[in-house]
Amino acid sequence: MKFVVTTSHKPTKEEVLSARGLADELGVKYVSRGRLKDFEKEYPIDFYYVFDKNGQLSIRTGDSVFFFHPGMSKVRYKNIKLQDSDYLIKSMELSGDETVLDTTFGLGNEALLIAHFLPEGKVVGLEASEHIYRVVSHGLRNYPYTYEWIREASTRIELHNRDLRDFVKECPDASYDIVYCDPMFDRPQMSSNSINPLRPFAMYERISRADVDEMIRVSSKRFIIKSRTRDTLFEELGLQFDKVCGSKKSGVLYGVVEKR
């Protein structure tokens, strides 16, 4: 895809320097925001990176904006406080000192939630898309967090721009306490305003049984995989789960394979 780097309107000197630095790093053009429309007429592009005044990095394509925001982690944490009702956290059975491998990081909202319950541990995240990785990794480091628990959780996340298949094959047996996989659903939830801007940049290669066997191999406590109640992933994989957390009401299931 063709893209450039720019800033918000009337940028500060720091914004311009940051945008120019990213453009140099990526080997693409820096285009000032005031010249962007004229540039697009002569050199059509698929999207552009924007450095905003608040220090955030986003991607704009058409009317869509993709940016990092920990909104869903806040909602899910609130539900845990009110109802103790998060199936992912229940399925993980965290002691607080584990190292969790999140093989499909995406926006990182689940990783932030997991990391909150790991005061002595950490989350190692993998994101195969270079563009999703760049926006989310920048956001994790620079987002103006208003909740201290989220800021602290972000410091316990280590994110890598790697495909899970290549990464996991390099790992020794039982090298992570818990391995978590959240592949793209068969039938995407198109009403999700937070996920839709991410879709053009996401990797859609189907998770296979061979992939799952590798992820199980590198886990020492348990492997967890997410699916929707109406998807066919669990049936395709043919796994014998020790338990499945979730409900028809939530529409989401977490299959758990225990290693002990």
Description:
The strands form two sheets. The protein has a seven-stranded mixed sheet. A four-stranded mixed sheet has the order 1-2-3-4. Helix 5 packs across helix 7 (148-154). It has helices at 13-26, 36-42, 71-83, 87-92, 109-116, 130-142, 148-154, 164-169, 209-217, 233-237, and strands at 3-7, 47-51, 57-61, 64-67, 99-102, 122-126, 157-160, 176-181, 219-228, 243-247, 252-258. The protein starts with a strand and ends with a strand. The longest helix has 14 residues, at 13-26. It has 260 residues and is an alpha/beta fold. The mean pLDDT is 91. It is built from ten helices and eleven strands. It is globular.
Assign an overall shape: globular
Number of strands: 11
Low-confidence segments, given as residue ranges, are: none
The strand order across the widest sheet is 7-6-5-8-9-11-10
Structural class: alpha/beta
Mean pLDDT: 91
Instruction: Provide the helix percentage.
Output: 25-40%
Beta-strand percentage range: 15-25%
Note the run of SSEs as H and E. Answer: EHHEEEHHEHEHHEHEHEHEE
Radius of gyration: 19 Å
Gap between N and C termini, in Å? 45 Å
Number of helices: 10
Report the sheet with the most strands, covering strand number, pairing sense and barrel closure. Answer: 7 strands, mixed
